[in-house]
Amino acid sequence: MSDAKIRTALVTGASAGIGRATARKLAAEGVSVWAAARRLEALEALSRETPGVRALRLDVTDEESVRDAMARLAAEDATIDLLVNNAGFGQMGAVEDVPVEKLRYQLEVNVVGALRMAQAVLPGMRARRRGVVVNVSSPAGVASMPFFGAYCASKAALESLTSALRMEIADFGVSIVLVRPGAIATEFQEVAQEAGGSLAEHSPYADGYRAIDRLMKELESRGFPPEPVADAIVRAALASSPPAEVNAPIDAKATVALVNVLPSGLREAAMRFALRRLG
Ligand SMILES: NC(=O)c1ccc[n+]([C@@H]2O[C@H](COP(=O)([O-])OP(=O)(O)OC[C@H]3O[C@@H](n4cnc5c(N)ncnc54)[C@H](OP(=O)(O)O)[C@@H]3O)[C@@H](O)[C@H]2O)c1
After folding, report:
1. Is 208:275 a contact under the CB 8 Å cutoff?
2. What DSSP state is assigned to residue 225?
């Protein structure tokens, strides 16, 4: 059941995966949803098949695109009560190999983009003294993993900003929720491999790339579907008192619990062991 306070939501990265599933679930709860991403055709297809969902072209890295999207929402009298900052991707590659401009773009999408969107909706939420922002992080935000250093750094930065924002805004009636999805089969794995591109060629870390490549393929075929994460996002966002953090599904809960108790040396050794077995 939709909490009466959340009537309209803006979901970024809604053209695929977790974002698309979240847009669908919110609409099923009676929330009016603006589904945003760069691929308008995918959003329009979602809108056609899901009553209550409307398509919004948006590139979170582009100031002008964000301004245009906000202007469109204002023109439609849409008051955003819920922002799901879900748009994101994983830049695969060894820390030594990742070109600086790729690291910058990773941070631009996953960190700066999320901040840009939050800054666009927070003034309205503060003024109305109600609203929820959900930032989609990852267990990678609490424990770094090899060959995804740029991605892990972006999620760690997002977690840090999220925590600061939550403390700052608490007195204004706005809730900030951090969600860490587990291993979910979406376009994420393919996009990560594409972003890694030719970094593996001539790399001294070729064995590691082979292992991580296998891991991505494994997750693509055996990862959880996005619906349990979407359920967790919607439950948290519509709760009368939204939780600060949600790990979902079970693998994310287990990973974060383990990271919280394992000394970092042991955690790193376990990760290297697991990767070597894959390679
Ligand atoms: N899949 C997993 O195992 C997993 C695990 C933990 C956390 N996560 C996080 O969950 C979130 C969603 O990932 P997913 O698995 O659903 O991946 P996905 O299927 O690849 O979806 C990513 C979405 O982000 C959008 N996007 C990417 N760059 C964008 C930009 N510059 N502006 C606007 N939208 C952009 C994409 O849309 P367009 O290409 O149309 O713009 C797409 O809709 C990400 O933040 C990811 O880090 C995923």
Report:
1. yes
2. P
CA 210–ligand 1 middle distance (angstroms) = 23
Q: List, chain by chain if needed, residues with CB within 6 Å of any ligand 1 atom.
A: 12-19, 37-39, 42, 58-61, 86-89, 109, 113, 136, 138, 181, 183-184, 186-188, 191, 223
What are the pLDDT digits (tens) for 136-166? 999 999 999 999 999 999 999 999 999 999 9
Tell me the C-alpha distance between 243 and 4, whole Å: 17
Flag whether the pTM goes above 0.85: yes
**Structural domain boundaries of the chain?**
8-278
Atom of ligand 1 nearest to the CA of 21: 16
> What is the tens place of the pLDDT at every residue in 243-272?
999 999 999 999 999 999 999 999 999 999
Residues marked as catalytic: 151
Burial class (CB within 10 angstroms; exposed 0-12, middle 13-18, buried 19+) of 7: middle
The two structure tokens encoding residue 62? 């582009």
Closest CA to 23 of 9, 3, 7: 9
Mutate to test the pocket of ligand 1, among 11, 86, 115 (most ligand atoms within 8 A of CB): 86
Q: Say which CATH topology domain 8-278 has.
A: Rossmann fold (3.40.50)
